[in-house]
Amino acid sequence: MQPLYEGKAKRLYTTQEQDVLRIVYKDEATAFNGEKKAEFAGKGELNNRLTSHFFEVLEAADIPTHFIERISEREQLVRRVTIIPLEVVVRNVVAGSLSKRLGIEEGTVLETPIVEFYYKDDSLGDPLVTRAHINLLKISTTEELDLLEQEANRVNAVLRPYFDEKGITLVDFKLEYGKTPTGEILLADEISPDTCRLWDKETGDHLDKDVFRRNIGSLIDTYQTLFNRLGGNTQ
Ligand code: UDP
To answer: How many angstroms separate the CA atoms of 199 and 157, rounded?
Structure first.
């Protein structure tokens, strides 16, 4: 079938069904807007399994997602959507760019989760944008942004306790949303250790892509550890 799009971590193909796409997870990891790159044998399989599992957890909590099914080690079927060019970041604990931008120590627990929007544009380096900027760029209406924020908070309300029960703090994560041809808004893209910060509650160990970004451990060993920590659920 036709290749439709190739991103940093996935390839997207059409299928015989107009409204269904096939995603293939790659072994490549990138950081810092693609400046740092490496291949890790087995990463695609782990992220496919983990993302599929998280989408199933969310679907079970009545959160609409693009996910249909995982069909092989590296592949899943999803509903076709047009991605809204916003990264919706939810934060429970200060880390990464928030810590740098506001000078607040990493690890500071937020009283209330924060939702931020970043404009998905590699040439601009995915800048943080306000609602006024989003309106100016004609990306989404105020009503749509209210919905995205509400939906992102719902995802957090499901995933934060899910990880907590497994001894893991969901520090922050990035979501992307898409629109079906009929205008329905669905959670899309992926949820994986590439797009979340996950810290071991006891040791503070990073169970996410920060091990690669910060050169503090083996990415595959870390993702495999996370996979094992989530138990048979991901099989
Ligand atoms: N994130 C992502 N893709 C991006 C930028 C961020 O998946 O292009 C995720 C990242 O893994 C983290 C959260 O969004 O879980 C917040 O990232 P932050 O803004 O702190 O940026 P970073 O420090 O990763 O550059």
So the answer is: 17
Q: What is the mean pLDDT of residues 182-205?
A: 98
> Over the stretch 47-75, which tens digit does the pLDDT of each residue have?
999 999 999 999 999 999 999 999 999 99
Give the pLDDT score at 232.
Answer: 57
Nearest to 19 by CA among 188, 182, 190: 182
Q: How far apart are the CA of 168 and the centre of ligand 1, in A?
A: 18
Ligand 1 atom at minimum distance from 172 CA: 15
Q: Could you tell me the pTM of the whole model?
A: 0.97
CB-based pocket (< 6 A), ligand 1: 87, 89, 95-98, 126, 172-174, 195-197, 209
Helix (H) or strand (E) holding 98: helix 96-102
State how far the alpha carbon of 133 is from the alpha carbons of 97, 114, 139, 143, 145, in Å. 19, 18, 9, 15, 12
